[in-house]
Design a protein that fits this description.
Layout lengths: L6 H16 L4 H8 L24 H7 L5 H5 L5 E4 L2 E4 L11 H5 L15 E5 L13 H5 L21 H5 L5 E5 L2
Antiparallel strand pairs: 1-2, 3-4
């Protein structure tokens, strides 16, 4: 007999409740799944309109799970999270993300969770004011990047870059803007 007061079983129960709240399973789809048929998922992933913290669920799940409680904002040691329109968003204008995971640990709604990617989905864009564009030597952003995702010709490796913001903060001419990866 199962004891649902057990922590492990509660987590499993919450997981399935969250899954079923985001996925519609009809009898027809259930039998299609059992009999090997497949149907494309009708709900497409929503693109992020604003930057989210690392460890964020996919946007459509995040929007349903985040209740704007602010626990993650209080837990962030870098003060880069804020609540906007009832949801948490990321602001790397004056600091960087260390990916410490405290925001995910504080999120009881599991909109942020360490099982999700440690990536802000922000990528550097180099403006025309970058001194390398005028053929002057500068390696500040390349040296500041902890993932070595920026090449000498200012190409960003999207698989290495995690959107921490170190490159933007290191640029002394403010020629780097972080934009959502599309």
């Amino acid at each position: 007999m199962f004891n649902f007061t057990d922590k492990k079983n509660q987590k499993d129960e919450r997981y399935y409740q969250a899954y079923l709240s985001h996925h519609v399973i009809s009898r027809r789809n259930l039998f299609r799944g059992i009999l090997g048929g497949s149907e494309k998922h009708l709900q497409q992933d929503a693109k992020r309109a604003v930057p989210r913290p690392p460890f964020a669920a996919k946007e459509h799940l995040f929007l349903n799970a985040c209740n704007g409680c602010g626990d993650c904002v209080s837990a962030c040691p870098n003060s880069i999270l804020q609540i906007s329109e009832g949801k948490v968003m990321l602001d790397l204008g004056y600091s960087t993300c260390s990916f410490c995971g405290r925001c995910a640990d504080a999120c009881i709604q599991q909109a942020l969770h360490r099982a999700f990617r440690a990536d802000t989905e922000l990528r550097p864009t180099f403006l025309s004011s970058c001194i390398q564009h005028s053929h002057q030597s500068c390696e500040c952003c390349q040296q500041a990047c902890p993932k070595q995702a920026i090449s000498p010709d200012l190409q960003v490796d999207p698989l290495r870059c995690n959107g921490c913001g170190e490159c933007q903060l290191s640029c002394f001419v403010s020629a780097i803007r972080l934009t959502l990866d599309s």
